[in-house]
Amino acid sequence: MARRKTPVSSKKGKKKGFRLLAVYRGNIHVILFLRILAVTVFLFLSRAVFYAFNIKYFADVPAMEELKIFYHGTRFDIAAILMLNLPFILMYILPFRFREKKGYLAAADIYFYLVNIFALLLNFVDIIYFRFTLKRVTADIFSYLQVGGDFDKLLPQFMKDFWYILLSWVLFTFLMVWVASRFRVGSTWQKMKGGSFAYYFVNILLMAVFAGATVIGIRGGIQLRPINVVTAAKYTTARNVPLVLNTPFSILRTWDNEKLNTVRWYKSEADLEKVFTPVHGGTTGNFRRMNVMIIILESFSREHIGLLNHDLDNGRYQGYTPFMDSLIQHGMYFDAYANGKTSIQGIPAVLSSIPSLMYESFIQTSYASGKYTSIGGLLKAKGYSTAFFHGGTNGTMGFDSYTRLVGFDKYFGRNEYNNEADYDGKWGIRDEEFFQFTAREISTLGQPFCAALFSLSSHHPYFVPPRYINILRTGKLPIQQSIMYTDLSLAEFFHTIQHLPWYQNTLFVITADHTSEAYYPYYQSNAGQYAIPLLFYRPGDELKGRSKVIAQQIDVMPTVLNYLGYEGNYLAFGTNLMDNQQPHFSVHFSSGIYGMIKDDNLLEFDGSRSTHLFNLSGDPMQKINVMNSSAGQKEKLEGFLKAFIQQYNNRLIENRLTAE
Q: Pairing mode, if any, of strands 593-598 and 601-605?
């Protein structure tokens, strides 16, 4: 069959044109422009798909702000496409005739299609991954996959559960390739003799024009500094930043962002420490050689706990944690906030009081090779036995290496459990069986002990044993039946240990590693997406009540050490929740934006200036930016956050994570 070519020109002198859907052959520079335009349009359209599949999360965004977000998002789309296609652009603009050879053009085409298909894949994968992290994927995903454990087993499950996303990506890929392939290089410059001055002059000039336009596009304009992930915060709140960004841009711009910058907002250490210091002094009381049992529950958002959400569903909300509900009434409870959105951020926050205020988790960076400790290491020096329990495959997220590095002598994982009959087929040993295993192994530790147990089953694909499928309630979210299963496992764990000799002399701390996908609007908000429980419980103790103090994961270590009467100095970025003289707050970092909850306010700060301030009591959904009308409060909060960041950055850079 003869190939149709366009533009076409009739012998009768009709005007040139090209038929819709036909192949257009033209000048190599025109084809370059049209192809880059085509893939940019498809990347932009994939943002619309991202929005459509996550419309519930963005439901409260006003229509005009949505238009503004999509408009400014094109800057990030253009920058991402130009960065990814730099080799392709270079191959097309080189001012030499060999660029028109079939083999050369074929090689350029292979690169062009592969890199842009992969870019679309990243955007589509993030449609689902976003629901768990509420941010665009950044470059830390690659180091996370290296230490993440059973990724090869989980990938088929994700493809099965989210087949419609895979199908959407395949359709988009087909359309993008088909459209881009309509534009092909034709015979150009035929009228110019080989090696002519005109040929090289024109092509060098065009190379300069395209190179300049590419540089401007990658920079996002001609402003002083190139656009970055944090630039998106200029156009909306931190909550909506993922809609402005695209995933390829987020990964490319955070590729080499492990390095922190030294900051000197406070010129002297004395001035800095007056505002905030992470160095804690020991108590003057007698040290109580009490056991410490820290239980970290996978994805246990505050949203799932019925006792804490009486206002939901017009007072009819039951929740999915009947045992946790009952235990809260017998201990000291805090409405706390996670310092991150992943397990690999949550574990060092709880155990070492070190948050991850950067694109990567602290324990994935080179800073983790320095000298620092944990509650396990500090108590080990006091003669404690120390152990960490997690039913996952040994090596998962590097927890075995991290916990041993910071003073936990023993690690109990899937290998130590040594019974594959209880393996869930995806992540590790089921919670019910592993919790009982933990109870038995703790009894073999010498007292006093400091042990940490990290649960597993309430993680996608949310394993629930068949015997409980028709017993445990399902909820509005897929995770909630597995939350009930973990809560049941926790109840059985306490039922087993309450008769053991060490139980009465143990302080229990129960919290979450991070939150899960949310259903109710508050738990999707800037503050609510970090809301987790934090409970301190000691059998028969007067440690009871529900505190209104703002708490965070990094407060666990200093609060426990103070409760024990720990003597000696130590470093913790959190504070003692039982001491009203200390500042109480919560910090987190996402998409280049710092968030701090303090004094009933949420401040958002991009590293150089504050962008939003919300009053949480008067505006619980954080819709009204009061930064301009509350300048004094903004300055006060920003001053404290700057002191915290300065202590954090400089101490990590200078390897000063101990009190020595």
A: antiparallel
DSSP for residue 365: S
Question: What token pair was written down for 216?
Answer: 């401007």
Q: Is residue 653 part of a domain?
A: no
Residue 569 has pLDDT above 80, yes or no: yes
- On whether the CB atoms of residues 425 and 464 are closer than 8 A, the answer is no
CA 344 from chain center: how many Å? Answer: 10
Residues 341 and 479 in one domain: yes
Res. 28: pLDDT tops 80: yes
d(CA 423, CA 429): 4
Last residue of a domain, one of 206, 238, 253: 253
Q: Can you list the positions of beta strands (E) in 420-461?
A: 449-454
CB neighbourhood size of 131 (10 A): 17
What six digits make up the tokens of 541?
């103790």
Please identify which residue in the block is written with the tokens 């359209």: 45
**Host domain of residue 78:** 24-253
Residue 491 belongs to a domain with what CATH number?
Answer: 3.40.720.10
Residue type, 124: F
- CA dist., res. 355 & res. 350, Å (int): 9
| More confident of the two residues 591 and 1 | 591
Angle between helices 63-84 and 86-93 (to 10 degrees): 60
| Nearest one of 28, 4, 8, 21 to 185, comparing CA atoms | 28
Q: In terms of Cα–Cα distance, which of 194, 590, 28 is closest to 357?
A: 590
Between 405 and 259, the higher pLDDT residue: 405
Task: Tell me which residue of 378, 346, 379, 387 sits closest to 363, measured CA to CA.
Answer: 346
Q: Scanning the structure block, which residue is given the tokens 């240990």? A: 497
Checking if the pLDDT of 10 tops 70, the result is: no
- Cα→Cα distances 509→211, 407, 550, Å: 58, 19, 16
Buried b (16+ CB within 10 A) or exposed e, 509-520: bbbbbbbbbbbb
Is residue 303, in this structure, part of any structural domain at all? yes
Contact (Cβ atoms closer than 8 angstroms) between residue 519 and residue 477: yes
Question: Which pLDDT score, from 0 to 100, does residue 152 have?
Answer: 59
pLDDT tens track for 60-109: 888 899 999 999 999 999 999 999 999 999 999 998 878 878 899 999 99
For residue 282, what are its two tokens? 């020991």
Please state, as a whole number, how many other Cβ atoms lie within 10 Å of the Cβ of residue 193.
Answer: 10
Q: For residues 443 and 500, is the Cβ–Cβ distance under 8 A?
A: yes
- pLDDT per position as a tens digit, 85-96: 999 999 999 988
CB contact set of 506 (below 8 Å; sequence gap of 6+)? 290, 291, 292, 293, 538, 539
Q: For the chain, what is the domain count? A: 2
625 lies in a domain? no
